[in-house]
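Hi,

I'm pasting everything inline rather than attaching a file, because the server keeps stripping attachments. The sequence lines come first, and each chain or strand is labelled.
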Amino acid sequence: MKRFIGVILLLVCCLLSSVNGGLVPKDIVPQGGLSPQTEACIGCHHIYTPGIVYDWMTSRHSKTLPVEAMKKAPLEKRISVDSLPKSLQGYVVGCYECHSLNTDSHKDNFKHMGYSINVVVTPNDCKTCHPVEAQQFAGSKKSYAYKNLMGNPLYHSLVSTVTGMRRFEKNQILAEKPSDATLHETCLGCHGTKVEAQGLKTIPTKLGEVQVPDLTNWPNQGVGRVNPDGSAGACTACHPRHGFSIEVARKPYTCSQCHLEPDVPAWNVYSESKHGNIYSSKYQQWNFDSVPWVIGKDFSAPSCATCHNSLVVSPDNAVVAERTHDFGSRLWVRLFGLIYSHPQPKSGDTTIIRNRDGLPLPVTFAGEPASGFLIDRPEQDKRLQEMSGICRNCHSSHWTASHFAKLDSTINETNRMTAAATNLMAKAWGEKIEDNSNPFDESIEQMWSSQWLFYSNSIRYASAMTGAPDYASFKNGWWHLNTNLQHMKNWIEFKKELTEKD
Amino acid sequence: MKRFIGVILLLVCCLLSSVNGGLVPKDIVPQGGLSPQTEACIGCHHIYTPGIVYDWMTSRHSKTLPVEAMKKAPLEKRISVDSLPKSLQGYVVGCYECHSLNTDSHKDNFKHMGYSINVVVTPNDCKTCHPVEAQQFAGSKKSYAYKNLMGNPLYHSLVSTVTGMRRFEKNQILAEKPSDATLHETCLGCHGTKVEAQGLKTIPTKLGEVQVPDLTNWPNQGVGRVNPDGSAGACTACHPRHGFSIEVARKPYTCSQCHLEPDVPAWNVYSESKHGNIYSSKYQQWNFDSVPWVIGKDFSAPSCATCHNSLVVSPDNAVVAERTHDFGSRLWVRLFGLIYSHPQPKSGDTTIIRNRDGLPLPVTFAGEPASGFLIDRPEQDKRLQEMSGICRNCHSSHWTASHFAKLDSTINETNRMTAAATNLMAKAWGEKIEDNSNPFDESIEQMWSSQWLFYSNSIRYASAMTGAPDYASFKNGWWHLNTNLQHMKNWIEFKKELTEKD
Amino acid sequence: MKRFIGVILLLVCCLLSSVNGGLVPKDIVPQGGLSPQTEACIGCHHIYTPGIVYDWMTSRHSKTLPVEAMKKAPLEKRISVDSLPKSLQGYVVGCYECHSLNTDSHKDNFKHMGYSINVVVTPNDCKTCHPVEAQQFAGSKKSYAYKNLMGNPLYHSLVSTVTGMRRFEKNQILAEKPSDATLHETCLGCHGTKVEAQGLKTIPTKLGEVQVPDLTNWPNQGVGRVNPDGSAGACTACHPRHGFSIEVARKPYTCSQCHLEPDVPAWNVYSESKHGNIYSSKYQQWNFDSVPWVIGKDFSAPSCATCHNSLVVSPDNAVVAERTHDFGSRLWVRLFGLIYSHPQPKSGDTTIIRNRDGLPLPVTFAGEPASGFLIDRPEQDKRLQEMSGICRNCHSSHWTASHFAKLDSTINETNRMTAAATNLMAKAWGEKIEDNSNPFDESIEQMWSSQWLFYSNSIRYASAMTGAPDYASFKNGWWHLNTNLQHMKNWIEFKKELTEKD
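And the predicted assembly:
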């Protein structure tokens, strides 16, 4: 009976909404511009999920006709498509405009109140208006974040070793495979899960039971999420629903969801740096919403987006850097050591890499880069020049060059420190103190992993931003790099002692 | 002589103030509304402690007549009493209105410039205008924070072991009891100290010597502080003096004073989460002062208070959640493992709990909950539904249900990991490698404590907010949970080796 | 050819600018007040480094004639000189006014577009208008930050041990000296590098090649930087170029560039404290730019600068504390243990200290202070009273006194804990388990260093601000202080076992 009343209510609500939008209070929707379908959505959802309706109302999408957006001057454009289907031209970008696209490829499509709705909006849908950004993103490592981690046997093994359960049985610690739930909220929280539709599911709502697609590993906004339409990525990783704000994406808190200590301490280093200090002290006086983004006028110190992504111009509107959604495209070196820091890979898909040892790693254990898969010197120089060009809007050429020369030295030193640790581990393997069947699961191996994954990485990030001297010294840097190396040596001696006794 | 002049000055100051308030500049106090007593307080204190006088001037208390506050519509009310003594009706809430209440029970009462003043204002005093909040708080675990820690022999033993001094004598490390000063600024900094009045004390001031109550373990604003009037709690833990602001309490920095890594990393996880990112990026555009607090209009992502405490309504003024000052009342599970995560206790007083082993722990060492003292399944479901109801203002039912199903899985996994560590420790005890007289003071025991108190807790907090994947992976989560378990096993082997040799 | 065109362009640009400033758009410079030289600078630099030009435009320097600044009432003055050379009187403080001073002593001076320009502006240059601040700073430990670290053989040895490379050879870990690059971005990132001019260097710019001074260890803004004019310090450590803002220096993010965990966790403790909570919740409603800074009116909780540096007055303009740029001048005790906490040194130059053991340490290994080099009791009391006077603007005398009594107790306890660890290490040395030739390079010594440098320091900082109880308990405090002491003892036992076997 309860269920029956629910269904009736739903029908009435839906009917009223789609007929005349009468359920939508005038003060919560912009005058004109709403498609009838979106008006119907809001008719119910302003009551059932008001949070997202109101959030969308703060967005540019809720106030912008795509045809108007397309008329803007090139530097001011936020839309990159040249022509749009008629159905999207006359309305602001509402619920239905995004949730109804490319339904054929969407395994998460379902019938909802008479409409054909996708649960998940994907980069392939956003591409309708933002094809340049979708295209750039599709070629980036971020887009391959799931595949690069889970499709690489070596990294997959690290993932399983780190996040898998253990049980204690017969005097042994036995490893289990990690559960989907744990993968979901650890590694794949950032890298993205594989979301698949497995039929429909009946769920209770305020209005009675409804049927919705049953999605695996959902909800998730990891940047390399594999979507039910086969596409990869989640624009919402950086532009959270339903405001899709450029302001949020330009503020460093967005990047700080994932680029964090101990392995990728970009945020930690930034927040301790001079740039981070100026940002924190002054950002409320800056403009994070303007396109293009004007150095000196809109801001006086960079956030992450300034150097890595945004369309940045000088006050006289000269382009300093073009907008890019290929997040590595201004980078020549990959600080994140695997296991050594190395030139950026050519392809966003890093599973194709094979080093001289035949392993899917960009560098061999001995330190030799898999050069065929990495960008060459001219490309590295080109990118270094592009990044330096941003720096030079505030810093002299000498300053900028000296800064990056220091980074080069640090990359070299930390790579050598990794080599020392690798030699120690090889010695332990050679002496049968531990075995190399899984290079991540024993104590000496865990210490070795800390060397490159935590300490060397931290030092390099601190060097790259010339900030965080304390971080590079005591917090997660040289102090640990050196004491941990000593621990490795101690450990080998102890284990040898024990082994010999047996 | 110096003292004599001081006394004279005090008398003059006091006299002038109480006669006509002539010492209070017109521009620093609101026109009308001040009681003569409060006017006298301010007469001196705007000179001697201007910081708190001006802070109070920014408060609602300094501008509000309680009788007016009582007339507001139910959802807009910030005062919960139905009738007030006449003496409090006609004046704004000033110094004297709060510091002169219930003097009979206040052992910290003293004669000050002719008035009878309490040093400490307690929940029992605030109750005069806010009885509903005081009542809710009194039943909560927060109100028992001192007793639950110091009155539970097992936890008390943990406290003493962690914070007690050590000395090195005769080749032995000998433990001492922690000092009051150290307890005060460690555990009891959050849990609250026991503040007792032990007579009067003469102290020098700018105006000469004055006599004030000599209070032990003061100053302190711990949430479970035991007050000189016998009451428990400090409203100032979250509403700092003398602004008593709802804005401050709703911002997450307030909770972050105590709910911190490594044991209770609520703030750390929040700040790395999607909600935390949106908060940090947008909060300056939100309204933290409105009552009721309107989802979508006043804010677009939750802070701690949104989910745990505040009166939250939808834009059409439908109540989503009632205000509560019983901070666990919307929670079904207690993530904070003791030593396993378990259903919330029925009573805020957890010293009454006895598990099947007879220990004052909500779960046995083997993992069996003390069910009689914990809320039952229907109550758990009711609370889960209430919390989900808040989520569903922005997220679909499927989304919300999947989120909490994931949390269930994580609670189960981390509890099993704790069980593995407990088995290892039991083995060490069984083999006489260490002894269980104090389960916290030897190395294997410290590693075991880290497993549940730091790593399992961290993973559960990260899961509960689906944020901070990095935190749950490498920072304080699975990486440590697994490597530390390995360390426990290594440790047992080494100690055995040493023991056997002797 | 390319180079030739560049030179021509430069000349034209420079000529036009110096003749009529015609290249400077009217809307980017204030009407009048610019010196012809500064106008020439901006003529090119608004195009080539617009970031710093626009940043300077937000500054007080760009809008203020020094002669007008000198006329202000004493409490409102930001300039401390009594008379100025004529050349500086009639213009705002622009590029040339700062970069052209004291050229004779500047080894980094070079001919640039017809002008004689210093690359680095030093405290000795800022002294032209701010002699009182420069003088105070020159006597402070901050000004000696480079010398105190690198000129003290013991500390220098710590630096080298912590940041030096290691290589693994012939089964041994061999230490190397740290590189300049690594020193630069670790210890000397905060302490300051030694910047020296070593001739000229040709660098490519947008306008062709130019010759600039070749500076070593540059760029750097460490607070004790040794400058090419022989002076010490970098005002830009706290007042970042080219806004030179008092607002930035007063916000705690500035101090947080260096005063960070694990060794000097001032920021970490502050941000978890009640003061830090109020700051974070309310600072946007405060005024960080006013001089003098009025307690209660401009702010309602202190930032670092309030207690340590700023000219602070009460609302009736009574001076609570005078401005100081000698950062230790309000401090009686040095929390930062070397190796024990001790009274502040008399001189900013701590390399002159010799303790009874003849070591350049303020305390002996056994805990006896080098009293002759440290401030005496009356001076300590005087400074305690000055600091307490700031506290008492918001807190009672009893509150304040109790707070600092607690700190005294904690200093005593943590010093005793350091003594216990020192005894353990001495035992290890005595038993030849490790050797004391370098007191920082072996495992027992690293554990010992952690005791005072990380854990005792953390507890004392937490105590001094009565904040961060969690920090002092589990994060970096008593938990570690006690478990690490246990590790030291375990370590000695293991090593003994191994040694005996051999």
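The mean pLDDT of chain B is 93.

If the labels don't parse on your end, tell me and I'll reformat.
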